[in-house]
Amino acid sequence: MQQLGIIGFGNMGEALVKGVRASGGGKTLLVAEKNQSRLEHAITTYGAEDCTGDLSRLFTEAQVVILAIKPQDLEALAKNIKPVVGTTPVISILAGKTLQYIHDLTGAQEVARFMPSLAAQVQRSVVGVCYSEKSSEVFRELSYQIANSLGLGVEVPERLMPAIIGTSGSGIAFAFAYLHAMALGGTKVGIPYDSSLEIALDVMEGAIQTIRETKTQPVELITKVCSPEGTTIEGILALEQGGFTPTIVDAVERAALRSSQLEQ
């Protein structure tokens, strides 16, 4: 895909363009962006062509158009999209906006919905993906490739998008909270915060790599680290006495529930 259109060029919109460009696509970039500084950034950094005042050209020339605006801005903008959308497929990264909602407002027949996380900025995001019923196989494959350019695309039925938000979109913040807590713990026992954070990051990376390479469940690895009357079992006991496991489960569930409540 060499002709990419994007409406909205904020941080997530730029991350999508970076991902597509890194995978060899999007040589022609058509951008609609009302913020002048962001528009100039798209033009000077990515060679984008300004279609802010000409959505007809954007939808005519682009093979796919990405909606990367704020969710609350779509209703007003859709009035300008619907007359020109034609048969152009649309990818939406608008949180809380369903496939049906996007179709109803814009008139697009082929719609993909993405749920990335903040890690899309470094091409390491899990990206939940679902499609409208009228999406062709060609569009499904293309949009899935775009999702993978941001990290890891995970195709799910739309009813599970809130679960993706709980485990990934919001879940990345839970991971940040854990790493911060670990760094505070290191500080509490004598290691400066910055050094503690570096240690925590390496420990997390090592844990992830161990799980991936050994293909072992985390609970089994925990038992391998815990020796009788040792240090680790004391720490694990402290975590569980503090409600660590049910708190994490509850955080994911509550984020997913809130996502469901916000959907329309």
Automatic annotation (TrEMBL):
It holds the Pfam family F420_oxidored. Residues 158-262 form the Pyrroline-5-carboxylate reductase dimerisation domain. InterPro entries: 6-PGluconate_DH-like_C_sf, NAD(P)-bd_dom_sf, P5C_Rdtase_cat_N, P5CR_dimer, Pyrroline-COOH_reductase. GO terms for molecular function: pyrroline-5-carboxylate reductase activity. One of its GO terms (cellular component) is cytoplasm. It is found in: Cytoplasm. Belongs to the pyrroline-5-carboxylate reductase family. It catalyses: L-proline + NAD(+) = (S)-1-pyrroline-5-carboxylate + NADH + 2 H(+); L-proline + NADP(+) = (S)-1-pyrroline-5-carboxylate + NADPH + 2 H(+). This is Pyrroline-5-carboxylate reductase. Its EC number is 1.5.1.2. GO terms for biological process: L-proline biosynthetic process. Keywords: Amino-acid biosynthesis, Cytoplasm, NADP, Oxidoreductase, Proline biosynthesis. Catalyzes the reduction of 1-pyrroline-5-carboxylate (PCA) to L-proline. Residues 4-96 form the Pyrroline-5-carboxylate reductase catalytic N-terminal domain. NADP(+) binds at I7, G8, F9, G10, N11, M12, A68, I69, K70, P71. Pathway: Amino-acid biosynthesis; L-proline biosynthesis; L-proline from L-glutamate 5-semialdehyde: step 1/1.
